[in-house]
Amino acid sequence: MASRTTARVIDKDRGYDRILRKIAGLDKYSLEVGFFEGSGVSRDVIERAYRNEYGDGPPARPFIAPTVDANYRKYVRALAKRSFRFLVLRRGIKENLETVGNMIARDIERAIAEKSTPANAPATVARMVFNDPLFETGEMQDSVRVRIARRKK
Fold first, then answer.
1. pTM (predicted TM-score)
2. Secondary structure (3-state) at 118
């Protein structure tokens, strides 16, 4: 004698759909840290930062890429921790990205202050008060900005 079994599946949403919608919101923004026109940073500082990062003129003294590379895991952990808070406590996406962006900016500012190689040319040393390749007036260090941009679809 064959028996017949029936089953009924009940789908109870315990917040999973809300979490998926919130995670989908993360792709609406991008986090940018650096030197941006229109953010109160002079064109001279932007050009100086570029020349030092990539060696266009003076020897390369990269300070952004090595900083991000060395601290990448720290930034990912911080963003993951804040994303959890975002999902649970319902704090804003932009606020969380800005917090991590400020962490990155502080690390870049520290790298500017601590960078010592390659040394300045003798002519540059002669006109400077002290011999620090990236820190002459402090203007570049004070010009690191965080920007949260809405991605275009």
1. 0.71
2. coil
